[in-house]
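hey can u check if this looks right to u? its 184 residues, i copy pasted from the old doc so theres a chance i mangled smth
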Amino acid sequence: MTSKELIDKAKPGFDSAFRFFEQEIAKIRTSRASPAMVEDIEVNCFGQKFPLKQLGSISAPATNQLVIQPWDGSYLEPIQTAISQSGLGMSAVVDKNIIRLNLPLLTEEYRNTLTRILNEKAEESRKTIRHLREDCWNKIQTAQKDKLISEDDKFRGKDELQKVVDSFQEKIKQLVEKKSQEVA
């Protein structure tokens, strides 16, 4: 076993943390409407909870509007109720067999709140990556103590691990910058 093999085993964890961060920030509202904002809202339908994306199609025909077309007309009322209780500040209007969501204009205060939430989620992801780095580094050190790898391999592994961590930290930074520009 080498330090590279230990790092390769840890990479899926780093990748998973980054993908989770991507999914989380996709839900943050920007100046454009996105189906990701509402697709995971839990809808209480027939005594069970379903994510909205399982109950109908979601589209964004305009920059400040989402349209939900339920697969069944009986889903209209539960979907409308779930959206009003979601706290997203959107008004749901039922129009025949579809639901229109009009997004209010972003105020400066709301933009600041969204930026704060974005930064909090980024910091959570950075913490997860730091934790994964520490865990992998501990495994490398243990392998060296158990004479499974050499001391030189241990330090090469440390440098390689830091490069991997730095690349994920840079990806998070770039994503935060991009999303911050969309919010502004």
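The chain has four helices and six strands.
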